[in-house]
UniProtKB/TrEMBL annotation:
Recorded family membership: Belongs to the type-B carboxylesterase/lipase family.
Organism taxonomic ancestry: Eukaryota, Metazoa, Chordata, Craniata, Vertebrata
Domain Carboxylesterase type B: from-to ranges: 80-194
Protein name according to UniProt: Carboxylesterase type B domain-containing protein
Ranges in a coiled coil: none
Entry-linked InterPro entries: AB_hydrolase_fold, CarbesteraseB, Type-B_Carboxylest/Lipase
Amino acid sequence: MRFLPLALDGVFLRKSPEEIVAGKEFNAVPFMIGVTNNEFGWNIRSLLIQRMLIFLFLLSVIMDGCLGDTDDPAELWDRFLDLLGDSRAPTYYFEYQHWPALYWDTKPEYVKADHGDEVSFVFGGPYLAGDICLCEKNLSRTLMKYWANFAGNGNPNGEGLVEWPSYNLNEEYLEINLKQKKARKLKEKKVDFWRRVIFEVINNERTENKKVNSEL
């Protein structure tokens, strides 16, 4: 609860969220969650604060693993964003990828689908925006169908829609663009980097610190 205050009033919330989750004391409600492929791509610099950075001794490893050796500013920006950005209830996961045409004169080309860009399509925005291409209106209609189906019965799938698999051990999700398709293991290589390389560096650092402390 880092962003919003929490009040344990003993009536609505009788235990802390940590205790509730650990004890699985919650309803098995279908859940939909997703990201865009360029989360906060436009204003990341204004939101990044020093205390959000991880331990300094990891920075060189992260830079090498995520940013690589390119000098192209747009490519570095994109890689930097990628760096940052069980109750048995069905979960549906998506990655929204379409860059809205209405941003053509307000955001640079390298910003792809930014934070919240899917919301206007869910609520039919392209039908209210004037001279918008038919492809974006069709995308909006598709998203409205998915979201309406999910709100109605807990499953976004329906007639005429690309199958949206529930998220499970296969790690399947839906890529949402002008054309939708199923995919698996979002950013698998980058996830592996954080799980394997970073943990290895942390463990090595802890081992070295213990060695130094024992010598002292």
